[in-house]
Structure formats: C-alpha cells, structure tokens
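Exercise (ungraded).
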Amino acid sequence: DGGITQSPKYLFRKEGQNVTLSCEQNLNHDAMYWYRQDPGQGLRLIYYSQIVNDFQKGDIAEGYSVSREKKESFPLTVTSAQKNPTAFYLCASSPRKGGANVLTFGAGSRLTVL
Amino acid sequence: RKEVEQDPGPFNVPEGATVAFNCTYSNSASQSFFWYRQDCRKEPKLLMSVYSSGNEDGRFTAQLNRASQYISLLIRDSKLSDSATYLCVAASGTGGFKTIFGAGTRLFVKA
C-alpha cells in the first residue's frame, strides 16, 4: 500500500541537541510538507517542497531545516535554535496537479524536549 | 484573526444524534474546501471535499456558502466511532502550501 512513513514515532531530546525526523513517501507525489501541531492550534506549515532540490519556508521555519535530495524523502531537522520544539510533527504529501490541495499525512512524530 | 475559525467544542452528543459543525474563513480568494478527521494522537485524514452545491457522503453532509465565507459539516445518526476532532480546511490556490487548517472541533459521541 502506498503511504507516508514517519520515524521515529516518539523522540526525546535534551536542550541544545539537533534532531532529524524522517519522512518517506511511495505515493509518487511531487510535493511534500512539514507541519507542526500544538494543542488547541491548527496545523502550522514549517517547510514545503514542490520538487526535488527545491524547498520553501512556511509560516514558522525559524529553527528548522530541511532537504529534498530525493522525490521520496523530505527529512526535517529541528535545531537547537528552535525555542519551543516540543510538539507533534506531521509530514504530508500531495500531487503537484490534480488534487494538489488534498494532503496525505504520515502518522506523525511526537518530539519532547527534556 | 485566524484565517480559518472553528468552534473548539467539545460537542458531547448521544448516539443517534445529529450534530453540526461550523467554520468561517477570512480569505475571500479561497477556492477549495475540505473537512478532515483527526483521531486522538493520530494524523488528520481527509473526510470529504466541500463543493459549492453541497455534497453528501452517507451520514455526512457538507455545505459551502461563499457569500458568507462559511462552511458546515452535518453528521446524522452519530456513532461512537465518530468521536474525533474535525478540521475545517480552506485553500487559496493550487498546492498544499496554500492550505490553511482550522484548529478543529472536538466531538464526543456517548452511548
């Protein structure tokens, strides 16, 4: 079955450490996204990529970095510069055309900073 | 003001009840609209798209009022399994980066 795989599902980090969240999709989607979800808030866009080797900042990119070296993969690094990184991180993908606004999500990664 | 606003709830209803969720969006350029369902500590999943003429999928009916910038979701004959958070979504162009999610409305269906 096609889908999006995120890992790890749960992650604990000490302050000052960088962590990288993995996102892999086999849906053959061109576009991929990273969102952050906090309690009582809607999903907020961190970064997105519409094509390999290209990505754009979303609404809350500060303290995060991404890469898009392969169509299937869009890893997110949460750096020590992110002041409040504890959150639920969701990776998503969509076709570039025909249903481009319909997002398919991975199961999420829950990051806790100790 | 949030771009997509929803009543956070929670809505507590008995099985078999009809429940309606409302949502407003502020960007008049929004073109596509959706409802997603999110179970506790899980990812959002597409429930249904919302069309101008209104559309129905089984017990679920979605309505769009462009003049009022208002979207609704009606659930008839509620089931225990309908308990979840329902996210209202508006997109102003082509591409997921144009997609704005509401904070969600929490629904609890009780036996």
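Further reading is listed at the end of the chapter. For now, observe: The two ends of chain A are 36 Å apart (CA to CA). DSSP finds no helices and eleven strands in chain A.
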